[in-house]
Amino acid sequence: YRGNSNRDELATTLKAHYGWEISDYERFYKDVLLKKKVLASLDNQAKASINTARGKIAAGVAFEDVAKEFSADEASKVNGGKIGRIDLKLNNANFSYTILETLKNLQEGASSEVVITNDSFYLFKNTKTYSEDEKEIEMIRVPFKTVDEYLQDLQKAGKIVRHIKFATQEEVTQE
Fold first, then answer.
1. What is the 8-class DSSP label of residue 10?
2. Within a 10 A sphere around the Cβ of 67, how many other Cβ atoms?
3. DSSP state letters, 16-67
4. Per-residue pLDDT at 49
5. Residue 138 CB contacts under 8 Å (≥ 6 apart), including other chains
6. Count of beta carbons in the 10 Å neighbourhood of residue 120
7. pLDDT along the chain (175 residues), means of 10
8. Which pLDDT does position 5 carry in this prediction?
9. Segment holding 75, helix H or strand E
10. Which pTM value belongs to this model?
11. Residue 125 and residue 39: Cα distance in Å, rounded?
């Protein structure tokens, strides 16, 4: 329900913005969560990368050095994973609920366990706590391969054939 929302507030918002019922939302998120679980378990390369990063941090290598080596987040990678001072209120739209809860519980100086979102593995470090809702955070992000990447690999291997091709945005714009 994202923060302090309740089921009625969620139903009102879904209906007003998307024309959805709660059952539509639940069906949609069931698919999202299944996709997350499948992609996280299939992508052995991303899993090995995040586990290696976690191992280096546990062995005492500086988080910023590990971030420079492993993170795919280009904006923070160059700064050693520093993403700055973060407002951790549960309605912060920049982070998922899972990430916000992890960050809220992360003690100053501590690094998180691996956090799994819909498209990536993450590691976080709390470098400074200003208040319960404000912390200075460093991050490592290792994305999963997308479903399309898996399908392209299968197509190249001759295991599947695509019979329908959808135009990309660039192709539509050029017409």
1. H
2. 26
3. HHH---HHHHHHHHHHHHHHHHHHHHH-HHHHHHHHHHHHHHHTT--HHHHH
4. 96
5. 63, 64, 67, 76, 80, 81, 82, 83, 124, 125, 127
6. 20
7. 68 88 86 81 92 97 96 91 87 79 93 93 96 94 88 87 76 67
8. 67
9. helix 74-77
10. 0.75
11. 25
pLDDT at 2: 52
27: left (phi over 0), alpha (psi -120 to 50) or beta: alpha
Q: For residue 98, give the nearest of 113, 84, 76, 83 by alpha carbon.
A: 113
Residues 65 and 75: their CA atoms lie apart, in Å, by 15
83 three-state secondary structure: strand
- What token pair was written down for 57? 């941090």
Cα–Cα distance between 133 and 29 in angstroms, integer?
Answer: 27
Q: What is the pLDDT of residue 63?
A: 96
Please give the pLDDT value at position 1: 46
CA–CA gap between residue 109 and residue 135 (Å, rounded): 11
CA angle in degrees (0–180, nearest 5) for 44-163-158: 45
Main-chain dihedrals φ then ψ at residue 111, nearest 5 degrees: -110, 150
